[in-house]
Amino acid sequence: MKYKNKTLWGVVALVSILNVGAFIGNSMRRPPVSINYPPVGDLSSYEITMYPNGSYSITYKGHDPTVLNSDTYVDTSNGVFGIGGRSTTTRSNQYVPGRTGEGVDEDGKKIVRSEECIKAEGGGESNGALVGASVATGFAPMLTGIPYVGWLASGWAVMFGQDIGSQIGGEIATTIKGCDK
């Protein structure tokens, strides 16, 4: 029995020493390199540089480029409905994505439309759509008489009148208010 107890305690000691050694060895071992790629969107970028000794560095930009250029082509024709001389001007603007502010073009004019102009255009479009639909409804009974597709032609005419009335109403309202598009 003496030998059995000593052998048992020797095996327990050996297993314990091996477990402690394995724990120390695993904790000192370098973890494998795993790269979780950073989130990339339309305005972000990253660059990963790997070195021969196994180290690496990551450069990440969340808003790259931080300043964007915007070119706006504006039709500056004469007249309420675009009747007259046709000319197109280009306005360039630099802005920071996600921030609102007033941009200025080369001539010093504000590019961002004022609240009054936006309200005028919205009201003009609303009233123009109402008037356009009312005028087109007068033609609906005539179109309803078309066999098989009369009901479709009637609905199409009312929606077309509403769309055209909305465009014309918005243009008239902004012209009266003195706003540039």
Descriptive report:
Helix 2 (115-137) packs antiparallel against helix 4 (150-177). Helix content is 46%, strand content 15%. The strands form two sheets. Strands 1-2 form a two-stranded antiparallel ribbon. A two-stranded antiparallel ribbon has the order 3-4. It contains four helices and four strands, in the order H-E-E-E-E-H-H-H. The mean pLDDT is 76.
Brief digest:
46% of the residues lie in helices and 15% in strands.
Strand content: 15-25%
Number of continuous helical runs: 4
Into how many domains do the coordinates divide? 4
Rounded mean pLDDT is 76
Secondary-structure map with pairings?
Layout: H1 2-28, E1 45-50, E2 56-61, E3 68-75, E4 88-95, H2 115-137, H3 140-144, H4 150-177
Antiparallel strand pairs: 1-2, 3-4
Helix pairs in contact: 2-4
List descriptors.
4 domains, alpha+beta, two-stranded antiparallel ribbon, 4 helices, 181 residues, two-stranded antiparallel sheet
